[in-house]
Amino acid sequence: MKEEALKVIESVLSQGRTAMVEYEAKQVLKAYGLPVPEEKLAKTLDEALKYAEEIGYPVALKLMSPQILHKSDAKVVMLNIKSPEELKQKWEEIHENARKYRPDAEILGVLVAPMLRPGREIIIGVTEDPQFGHAIMFGLGGIFVEVLKDVTFRIIPITERDARKMITEIKGYPILAGARGEEPADIDAIVDLLLKVSQLVDELRDYIKEMDLNPVFVYEKGKGAVIVDARIILKEPEEKKPEVSSEYKERCA
Asked: Which parts of the sequence belong to the ATP-grasp domain (predicted)?
């Protein structure tokens, strides 16, 4: 797990970058068994057409560039592409939009991804506190995080008990539990996500600065979850692991 993730991380750092594109971030997540779609990075139109046939239409296209991390702003995400003819058109459009948005952008390729069935949206994030180290954040996605700020935090590493408590203590928990007769969401899948993110960051804490998994689709109980988009920011090579206070160490002992 760690070795596979480190290969991706070291490749990014060797290019003088700390911001991973979505494809690279998902390769790190995949190394730790986190649920990511079966996506492929196409360098040419012919590869994109081939991958779309393998994945099966409809597909989505997402341009990967270290200089264009906010893909929606640049209009380099094309959804629900239903045929090879449409894919050819969107391939040209996505590259034209990238050139308009950032003429000097380095294009690593275009991610060809399956169109995913929507689920209840959650967000999982990681930040680093100068005193206590890395913290994991959980909340519902969309308006709940953008407007209501309905999120909860724990210091990494977390236990299964921590993960379950995080899920139940947000105000929006009834939406996951099955409000108004809806089927409950797969809470066990969310717990698994939180624990795996905690393990990943705990083992790679000397490299990971920030992480944002948003959105994550969570399906009905027993149906799992899938990470739709991911962002990882690495530490600068000269950055050192922050010192944790002796008081906090004693409390954790």
From this structure: 26-62
